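Students often ask why we bother predicting the structure of a whole assembly rather than each chain alone. The short answer is interfaces. A chain on its own may look different once its partners are present, and contacts between molecules only exist in the joint model. In this exercise we take two input lines together and write out one structure for the complete complex. Read the inputs first and try to guess which parts will touch.
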Amino acid sequence: MSDPILALEGVHAHIGGHHILQGVSLEARPGRATVLLGRNGAGKTTTLRTIMGLVRASAGTIRLAGERIERRRTFEIARLGVGYVPEDQAVLSHLTVEENFRLAMPCESEESARRLDTVFRLFPALKTYWQAKAGVLSGGQKQMVAIGRAFVTDHRLLLIDEPSKGLAPVVVDHLIESLRHMRDETTVILVEQNFHMARHVGTDYFILDDGRVVHGGRMEDLVNDHTVKKRYLGIG
Amino acid sequence: MNALDVAVGQPPGRPVSGRHLAVGAGAAALVLVPLIWIDPTTYLVLTVAGLAMGMLLFLTAVGLTLIFGLMDVLNLAHGAFFAWGGYVGFSVLQRLDALGWVETGSLGQSVGSTLLALAAAAGVGAVLGVVVERVVVRRVYGDHLKQILITVGLSLVMAEVIKIVWGPNDEMVLVPQALQGSYDLFDVVVNRFRVLAVVVGVAVFGGLHLLLRRTRLGLVVRAGVENREIVEVMGYDIGRIFTAVFAGGAALAAVGGAMWAVFREQIHPGMGDENLILALIVVIIGGMGSVTGSFVGAVVVGLAFNYVSFLVPKLALGVNILIMVIVLLLRPQGLMGQE
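Now the answer. The structure tokens for the assembled complex follow.
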């Protein structure tokens, strides 16, 4: 089995005096899509934000391809090849779609042009709205911008936080197809409450509960493990 | 048609805006109404004076609005950069006058002394901006109350240092020969310095507009004004960008101070606080974070101040506060601010 591209070992994090992550240990292997599951408040989003340096880890280690990054600043982690798509369709509303993408591409290369072509193929509507302000797009389109913007750069690892949140089922199905395509090119860690999306995009999973990893393994095993799903995710 | 297209519907059109027409009509009325009471020649002189004053206010306000918009920092020490710029410009002109450059020199020496005074003010303003951002402001990001307290304290300290270095009394400022006198355009007397102020103000506005709209740095700054976290996760060092914007804003305020010193031919240690009040009115009228808003707000304040000070001198500041209150009631985010 290949070495993990990302490994968290006993990571703790506090927000406003609250002990949110209480020793999270997990890893993501290259070329796979790892899904973080769990109830609201389990610590999934905080885990992604801690990996990204947006929340400071108070204890534990985070290694990216063997290099410790838990004391690095956010922009340094991004420059090491970690992309991040925050939750809630985080686009820059006052910029055009083109400007959102231009910001994500520090230099124009053949690779970024190829990736942009892929984004247009996956999300053709973005071409139509290329010069529109991102703020006037629908929720689904904004999510396309947020995900496409992260994908267009050649990241080693892509962290995506609840892309299905607030979207219509038809849009979620389209996103699933797109994310499945992206995971073939980039290692993905996905936080998701929607188990339909999680099972179709994810290859591996970890379940968080009260700031700790309580279960993990192959997604195909979880799909058939009704006891674990019922106990930790509340689904039968 | 795929799923996304279904969810999307038709391309969004540009909304028809009656608001822009209303703002345009209001601006035209503001500019033309004083003609009811003022004869056309005096009106034109006051208009040029108002535009010049507006441009000098713009130089201070634009830094204030960018620092607030990008960094979410209420910097009440911004007036101190303005005052320091005034004193640095004053000192440079004095030194150069000893060499015979300022009041009696050739046209080249006179223009050169003006440019040197402005460059020195900008340089000192930028250095002070870097020091203040790194040593003081960086510690209070995200806490408006602390920002207000610490920047008010800093402004008092910077004014006291001015008194120690230059003395507590008013100083007369030398006016370079090239800027003395007036142009006579069809019986309308236009002070040369006011023309320079308008040229510099418009050039700075145009330059900033190009910087923000046509360069990657401008794109990053505009993005940072909206959401600094997204900018940072894309690999941009927002801390360095904050420092650069703070230093740039301080440098522009200092240039404004140096020009104001020559405009008024007099400086005093409290000049920064007086200017800060007007700059804050400009930023509130124009909208926090908007460069164009600051430009429009500065023109409004400069014109209103000059028209009203001619008609009812005691109401000159009051009318701008009234305009600010009306804007806040009708459009709390300012004329060009984002909701």
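Check your guess against this: The CA atoms of residues 253 and 326 of chain B lie 27 Å apart.
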